[in-house]
Structures are given as structure tokens and as C-alpha cells.
User: Fold these one by one.
Assistant:
Number 1:
Amino acid sequence: MRRTRTSIAVLAAASLALTACGREDSAAGGEAQSEEIASGEATGTIDVWAMGTEGEVLEDFSAAFEEANPEADVKVTAVPWESAYDKLSGAIASGETPDVSLVGTTWMGEFAQAGGLMPTPENLVDESAFFPGAWESTEVGGTSYGVPWYVETRVLYYRTDLAEQAGWDEAPQTWDELKTFAQDLESKAGVEYGLNLQPGQTGSWQTVMPFAWSNGATLTNEDATEYTIDSPEMAEALDYYTSYFDEELSPTRLLDPGELETGFAKGTYGAFISGPWHTGLVEDAGVTQEQYTVAPMPGPDGAPGSSFVGGGDLVVFNDSDNADNAWKYVQWLSEAETQQAFYDEVGDLPAVQEAWETGELAEDPQLQVFGQQLENAESPPAVPTWEQVAGSIDSIVEQASKGDLPGDEAASQMQSEASSIGTGL
């Protein structure tokens, strides 16, 4: 399996500590989509900001676009992820944006609400070509403000050799089976913890919410004007999640960097939930490909479980000096052939489903698990206040994981704090 670059992991972490800012004189939501882009070749200079590995390779990769559009010149500025949010929000506030930028999926609501993003042209792409959860990350108040570029999702990792010792020759398919699986890994295979889950703190919502979504819980109403966190489905999912800590199936502390991977190799942890970047990390820690596998998230009753979908979206700014041609560049990056070529270049998982139908993406069994999971994955609501609400959820999950809050009280407290913050739409 080709190892996805750490830029995906950095994006997942960097997007968690951000707070809303931007211009207040315009708001997203309910806008008509942009006018259709003109036919013909792209022309002029297209200024692009991209982060991480994408920023390092994108200009050279774009030579194929320039060859097909001889009058176009793609100029890429590489921006470090740690400064990307401030740089983008400052550019929007000052009206000095590039034409195109990579934007973390959890930033979309803030930047659209700030008035910085141009709605996606109606004839740019076919929405159904993308994984549904990825496309939802571009929609703010019913309007799309970009196009998904690459994606990541979370699945179940487990040691197959230890699972066999515990009497399991296939992955658990339900919540009850997952609990028994973790118990058997401890009692029969000798692991210290059957399933490592995050006990609150920054980013824990990304592990908790797949259980809630699988159980039918929602975060907002359909038009994202109100939070809908307090529900029996959410409370039940929280009780199930925190039971792993109550029953000592998962450690109640956040692990140190590298501790999960070395513990997975030593057999301290029998299973965990994470994204595609972890395949390389566990193998670097000494786990052979014959000793572990990945599996889709189980649902509560045997139906496929949901997961979190993140990644990066491509946007064009309202202040772009070359918007029509910028959209043509985004359109090219959204073609299945281009997405597959970019996967070959850096390992980013394509957001376009057709790109998974040939080559390594279609043939590698582990990659196919991630592709299968992406068909049942959701993104958080693209609302301006999501980062604030996510931080609140993280804190409450930590309390619940310590046994200080039952699920119904935790869900009620999440709802109270989220309603106080509002969605911003």
C-alpha cells in the first residue's frame, strides 16, 4: 500500500485549534452558485497557495495543465500548515488573496462566512462524482464554495496474529462484536488494552462522532441553523464509547507521541482507530504487513458504520483577478485521471470516486478498505463556529471518559454550550 504523506495528518491536527475570524460585512448561505465558467483554454497567471507536501510538488505537477493550456501560467506558493490559517484569513480580510488555495475542510464555514470564497460554478464538476461526505464539506448554508481535492477517513486497525490467538479470523461487524473483540484480545491474547480510543482532549470528536453518526445522531438541523446534539442516539453512542474506559479496555490517558505505534508492535494495544497515514507508522515501528490489517468501522446493528471524512478542498476567492481561469485549473485537478496521477505523486487519496477504479487504488486490499469506508463517512457541519463547538465537545468527552458524566448528561451539556455559541449562519 502506498503510504499517504503526513500532510493529511498535519491538516487533521492543525485544523483543530483554529478560531473564527474574517470580514463581517458579508455572509455565506443561500447564495446562487457562480455563473458557468467559459469554454476554451485557460489563460493568464493563476496564483495558487498550497500547504505541506502538496505545496512542494504542485507547481511541477501542473506542467501538464500548462501544456494543455499554453497561455496559462500556474504559480504555486508553498505555505506551511502551521501558518496557513492566519495567512488565509489575513488575505481575505485585506482583499489580497491568491486565485486558488487549498483549504482545510473544517475551515470552509469560517472563510465562506467571512465573504472570501466564490460559490462553485454550476457547470464546473458533477457533484455525484465525489464521495458524498467530502462534497458536504464544501457546502455552507446550502451553497457549495469549492471542490474536494483529497480525502482521508478513519478505519479499524488490528493485529491479525493476536486476533487469531483470541479466536477471531475476521473483523467485528457490530458494536457488540467490537466490544467482545476487545475483551477477547485482553483475556485470550494477553494485550493490555483491546482497543485504544482517545479519552477526550483535542480532536477526540473525530473518533467519537463516527459512533454517533453510525447510531443516527446529527450535529445540526438540515439547514445548519441550529445544533441538534442532544438526542437519545447521541447519548447512547457516548455511553457505548465511554464504556471502553469504564471496563479498562482502553487507557484513560492520552498516549505520548509514538507510544501507540510502539505499543501496537509490542502487543500492548490490540486495535485502534485511525487514518491512512498510520499504515506507514506502524510498519516503521516494526509491525509487518502479515501481522495487521484494517477493516471498516462496525455499526451498532451490523449495518456499515460511519466514519469521519477530512482532507482538503480547493477554493477560488472573490478577490481573484483571474477567477474564470482559476476555476478551469480547479476543474483539471478534479478530473479522475489527474487525481490518480496526483495520488501516484504524493499518496493523497482522491476525492473523486472514479479515480479508485484502476491502478493501485483498485488493487490494493488495504486501500480498498479506505475507499469502502469513504462511501460511509461524514464531515462536520461547514459552519463558522464549528471549531469552537468541537473544542467544547472535546472537553466534555474527556469528562465522560473519566466517568464524570453519563451519556445523556454529556449530550445535554454539549447541546447547551453549542446552542450558546450558535452556528453562525
Note: The CA atoms of residues 154 and 275 lie 4 Å apart.
Number 2:
Amino acid sequence: MKNLTAQADAPVIVSNFDGLDVPQVVIENLIVKHLAAYPKSDVLKLARLLGIVTHLIEEILADLRKKAVVEVFQPESQSIFSESSKSHIRYGLSEQGQAQAENAFKKDAYIGPVPVSLRVYNKMVKAQDLRANLISRPDVERALNDVYGAQRLVPVLGPAINSGRALLLYGHAGTGKSFVAARILNALHTSVYIPYAVYAAGNIIKLFSPQHHKPVDSNHNREVISLKSHYDKRWVLCERPNVQVGGELTMDMLEVNHTEHNRMWIAPLQMIANNGILVIDDLGRQPMPVATLLNRWIVPMEYNYDHLSLPNGQQITIPFVLTMAFSTNLNPQKIADPAFLRRLGYKIQFQPLVETDYLNLWSDLSVEKGLELVPSALESLLNLHSLHKVGYFPCLPKDILGISQDIIQFEEIAPRVDSTILQRAWDLYFTADEQGESAS
């Protein structure tokens, strides 16, 4: 796990219902749903599943017993007179409880830790604002230490990240826009707390996403809670989120999603990306008009908050505290009007590498792949670039060496890339029309 420092104070373990800041009936329904999914669970297991302290669960269980919703089962392996038997008493649903669980699942299929309130979530997001700790040149240099040609990017990316304003990354395909965007967060050497779910306007919105949130400690997996040394298990300490989406983006992905199929409320992409970075890649390739997509971000970028419409017609407001980056291979002047381009504080052009960096990248990648790169092959490579007017794009060495390796393995010959192998790989990589295109 990465050595990162949490930017905000850890959320303390809550020991009373007022501190949870969500209606008690929400917790009751979660307990009922968990008992439906995990029959005959004891209090300790329920505490692990719900992320809250045992005495709060015991209090609700006592109330559910009075309502004849749950039934009690004695521990199988211990005497009922054992001192520890109380904590291992198991609970299951009665017939009435099964009906309540069925109704609860119909309303909301979420099952997991107790959600945090929208108020508490908003407070934590603001405390973890990435603009609170300005980064320096060494931070950006470290973040881009494996990026060839980074010396041209460091002076512009550093101020752009510190500004907190949206970025436009533009340039020819293969110049490393997405690669660099993914590494911007490495300069922000802090970690952030992400809740499993948020309770808002009477609904539970599932937020934690294993695809986008990478834990940096194991507090959320601890079976025993220590009020002094652990933090609230409804939160996970993670690397800053890195969310990238391309041509598959639809407007529905930018709103709280709820379908009859999964009956669960899912956080939109920008909420998942809060305190991190959201990259809209391949701008101009989405199914909706570019103007529609760009106009969606005017208020969030200007005021740092976002209004989300819920499927039931309600609306909530959340912080919009993240780095927004648009990436495109197209001419910015042709996909956005001047007024919107002015709202993007930084326009960063990505260009082909200079020859020295390009050849160094070829040499390093060939070593990495266990291939011998014959010197004459590099001369042939430069001639091919000159002949077909193809720029020194950083994607080419990896792609063409990969094809060369495939040829070598098929032919069962020594792992040497000479001029002949390189020419074959080049011809397989580029179409006939592409080889006549200009890199401009």
C-alpha cells in the first residue's frame, strides 16, 4: 500500500444514535435485510456487516424482538450458562420479519454498512479539498517520473493542479494525455476518507466503488473495534479517486442512478470522483452533443457544488471538489464555443516527443520486453517516420515492439528486432492511408 497521509482527521467511532445522524428506522431495515441475507447471525457479525458498535445493534434487536420481528437462537457450541454465551446468541427473522425484509428489499436493495448522512459527507469532502495543500515542482516531477517528455509538462501541470480549475488536455492521439492524467494524482500525496454509502432525502446512495476507490489501510476489515485506536468503519481510507470515462459516457451516468433491475441508488461519476480527478476522455466521441455535455458542468465548475436530481423527483446538493479534466484528440475550437473554453482555466497541448526522448523510450521498452534492439533498426525507424511524416508519439514504441514480439514468437527466431522485423511490424500497425498522413 502507498505511503500516503490522510488530509482530514479520521471520523471517530459513533457510540449513540444521534451521532449516526440517520433515522433509526434506516438502521432497523438494514439489520432486517442483513438477517435475511445472513440468517442466524450474532451481534458481532452484524457489527462487522453494519460498521457500528454492538450496543446500538443490541438496542434495535431488543426492540425488534418486542415486535416479534426477530427470533433468538442459543449458541450451538456453548452452554447457555457460559459467560460469553450472550454475545454469541444468534438472531433470525420470524415469519413477520421475513415479510418486513421483503418489503425493505423492494424499496431499496442496498445491503452494507450503515450510511453516513449527507451533512456529514459534505463536511468531510470539504475538509479533504485537494486545493488545501499546494503541491510543488518536486511533487509533480515525482508523479511524472516515468513519463518521457515530462520536462515540458511539469511547469504547466503544477500550477494547473494547484488552481483547482478544470483542465483541457488536447493533442494528437497517442501523445499520452490519458497516461499523464492518470498520474496527476500521484503529486497529491494524501489519502481521503470515502463512505460506503450516503443517506440523503430519505434514500441510501451507494458510493464506495472498488473499481475507483483503492484502500490504503485495513481498518474497514477489522473484526474488533477499538474506540481509541480505530476510526468509524463506515468509512474507508483510500487513495484519491481516479475516475476516467470516454465515449461510453451518457448523461444518466452523471445523475443518481436507480433501476428496477437492481433497485439500488448508485452515486454518479462526479460524486465517486470527489476529492480526486474526473477525466472525460475522447471528448467529442460521446453520444450526446458536446455542448450538452459541457453545459452540464458550468455550475459545478463555477461554484464548486452540484445539484443532483433523484429518480423520485427530489434534489440534493453535494460538493463538487475535484479536478475536472477534459481530454480530446480533436481541435478544441471545433468542439466548444469560445465562452466555454474560457471557463477551462488551463488548456494544455500534448505534442509528439523530441527525438532523444523517443529513442530512449524505444531502448527502455525493448529491455523491459527482453528484446535486443539492433542499432540499424533505429536508423530504419527514423527513416520510416520521415518518409511517412509520422510524429514521435509515445504510444508507438510499446505498440510496435508488441507486434515485433508477436512476430518473433511466431517465427521462433532469436528475440532481436532488426530492420526487417521492424518494417513488418510498422506495416501491420499502420494502414496504408495512415502512413501517408501528416502528424499535424
Note: DSSP finds 18 helices and 19 strands in the chain.
Number 3:
Amino acid sequence: MTTFSDLGLPEILLRALSSEGYETPTSIQAQAIPHLLQGRDLLGIAQTGTGKTAAFALPILERFAAERRRPAPFTARALVLAPTRELAAQIADSFRAYGQFLRPSVGVIVGGVSHRPQIDMLARGLDVLVATPGRLLDHIASGRFKPGFTEVLVLDEADHMLDLGFIVPIRQIVAKLPKNRQTLLFSATMPKEIAGLAQDMLNAPAQVSVTPVATTAERVDQHVYLVDGGAKRDILIELMSDAAISRAIVFTRTKRGADRVAQHLDAAGVGAEAIHGNKSQSQRIRALDSFRKGRTRVLVATDIAARGIDVDGVTHVVNFELPEVPEAYVHRIGRTARGGASGRAISLCDNGERPLLRQIEKLTRQSIPSTDRRSADQRHDDAQPARRVNRGNGGGGNGHGAARNAQKHPRREGPHREGQRPSGQRPANGQKRRAHGGGSNRPQASRPQG
């Protein structure tokens, strides 16, 4: 069995890993760390929960241990780009935990908060800067961050950044970095845009793949309830009456929908808070902290949070609405069954979402067990294809045509910059459009899951 000491990490990092209770590396750590210690670029295909944050954080910290020097003002020796504020904060926490005896200077740059504290932090110089692309570009444009001194670049959750419209900002940032840097790119999937980005950015990279693309977590028990659309809220309340659901994340497609579901749960006596892109950074931090500490039983989230929430002990994930992009289903249900635990994923699927369910089953190459909770009238209608198709073609009824449209033009939670919509993207239906880290609440497992 491989141990962290077998990977060639220095004693100062091994001591930190031991103090955190980590003994053996995960598959991606065992495969990636030797390449990165040699200074090679790396392309990693890995979903959240596989331990990839430690896979890149430990070699970066080893570099700092070997060459200790104070970074110049307004520079960072290592730059990590992340798609969401939550993920950025968790990555920073991982660096602090693994480097606790090295004491690197670590900073976070995200949108939704004041510029002034970030400018003051950058002025001191940083060993590690973790940032979301939009706000970082602001600081580059104002001259408050000088990217020309960066030695290592990490792109985490690259496919999620593609979904959020960040590819152009990423290319703008990369164009300003030194050409002789070390570059690491991690993605759960490899669409052609990410493959092109990797080809442009990486120099003869090592390639590591630790889990098949779009494979759902083995320890997640999945189930679908076929429901009438208007019955979803009542069925959700019924589900939450189960005491076995001690900590749950409920996913909706829209921010407004998340707020409505959270309010409905709260009114029914189920403690719930919503988290999405329209919430301020302080509101999101408070909601996550309350959820982590068990003061809130249910967190209602949009897909922007699907890869950014890393909380121990999530027993259930509920898809109140199925995602319009099937890959998002994999990342949603990956919020449970972490750190070797088991979990359950329940999806509420109305007739209009049946095409989305078929796309998910096609992507994950499995048939998800289901229970029919629809009314007798709805079951009768569903048994008559001609009538169903006629209503769908008429723009009403089961909404199959709308579901297909939604797949072609998905709403996206994340903007070109936090709080804004990408240029040229039109809002629909009055709405604005769309790792495991470690931190103070990392899983108590025998290896770092960050």
C-alpha cells in the first residue's frame, strides 16, 4: 500500500497530514503527486470527492518548503482558479491545513465582497492566491495584481467554469502569465472546449484519470419519484418527516425557486436556508456555517453550489427539479456519500421532466429505480401517447417540447462575472441565467479528500 512518505513529500508536510489524521493517499493523489513533484504539467480527470485538492496542494507546498522566500507585493507564487466562492474558500482552507507547519500566506479573491480588503491583502504578496476569474480580472485590470510572477497555475473544476461562462476570462488571465509556469488542469468531464483549452495551456502534460466520466458515486442509493408537478412541495415535506434525513441538500434550477422551497420548508417546521448566486458572500457563509454545525437541517441550493459545497455527513440529496444539463446530476448527488460514507439521492420528476430523466440515465448508463406517485388521472393521460403528444405540440400539457428546448438552451446560474450575465445572453422567464476541498470540516477519513 502506498503511503504519503512513499511519494517523496517533506517531513513538514507529512507531519501536517498526520495531525489531520490522513495516512494513505487517494488514487489521484498517488498518481498525480509524483508527476507534479517533478515539475510536469498535468491534466487530471477527476470528480469532486476524489481528493484532488490535496493532489495539487501538497506538491505546491513542497515547492515552497524547498525554496522559502517572501513573494513580492501584488504577486502570488501559485494561482488557483475556481468556479465558485464556496469552492475557493475550501481550497484555501486546505492549503492552510496541509501547510500548518509551513505557514504559507494564502488569500482568496471572489466577487460579492468589498475590493479594499482584497487590495490590502494583495499588497502584502501571497504564496497562494485562490480566485474566481471575474473578480481576479478586475484586480489585474487595475494593476493590483501582477500575474507575471506566478510560478504555478491550477484550474480546478474546469468544465464547471465552462458552464459558468468563464472560458474567455480564463484565457485572458492565462495570456498574462509567464510561459515557463507549471500548469495543472482538473475537470470532471472533457468536452471539446476543455480539451482545446488543455491543448493550448499545457506543455507535454502527464494525464491522470481516476474515475470514468459521468459515473455516479457507488455508495449513493438513487431513487426517482414520478410525481404531478403541483404535488412536489407536499411530497418534499412528506420526505422530510423521515428522521433518517438528518442533513439534506435540496437542489432547484433557479434562485427564485430555491428561495420559495426554503420558505415552504421553513413554514412547515423544517429548518431550511437557501444558497445561490444572488446571496451576498456573508449570507452564503452564514448559511453554510449553520448547515455544517447542524443548526439548519436542509440547505436549498442551485447548481452553482453543486461542486462548491463540502459538508460532512450529508445523508440525502433531493432533486426538487431535475437539472437541465445531465452532468449536473452527477455533481449534485456527489454531495452525499463522501469520505467513505453512504448516502441517498431522491429525485422528484414530473411529466415535463421525463426527457431530462432519460438523458441522465443515458449519461450515467443506468436505469434509476422509480416509484409512481402520480394521480390516477395523470397516469391515465400518460398511457395515451396520441393525446399526450398533441398537448405537448400545443405548448401545454406535459411540456416535453419545453424540456427539449431547455436542454438546448440551459439557464446557467453563474455569470461571466459574479452577479452579472454573460454578454449577449438573454434572460428566460424573467430570470437571470447559470473537490473536494478540506477545511475545518473535512471528513474524518484516513486520507485527505480535498
Note: The chain has two domains: 4-209, 220-408.
